[in-house]
Write the structure tokens for this entry.
Amino acid sequence: MLALAACARKNIENKEAIRQAVIEYLNSRQAQTGLDISNMDVNVTAMTFERDTARATVDFRVKNSDAGMQMNYTLDRKGDKWVVQPRQEGGQGHGVVTPGNETPASELPPGHPAVPASPKQ
């Protein structure tokens, strides 16, 4: 019975595991983006799981401010953790969630890199 328990995969289908993966991803890209995630509150507001893939909506708020935004992420299970899929051309992987995709870059949180506009569908 112990051998079965050792082989069982850790349950990472939870908000904290998703949140940690997003933070690790953004920290690894800080040199490219200039974004200091330590100045942000990061909360997973929605998530779905299908086999070894997760989709999540993550809310970012500048600490002690109302400024913020939401992003969608797609993550892959790698062992006992989630890894954010890098953004691909055409918007696959993750993207900005805004009402009608009309929020201009000037309304992004301070320090956030510019985000290209998504074509309306």
In short: The chain has three helices and five strands.
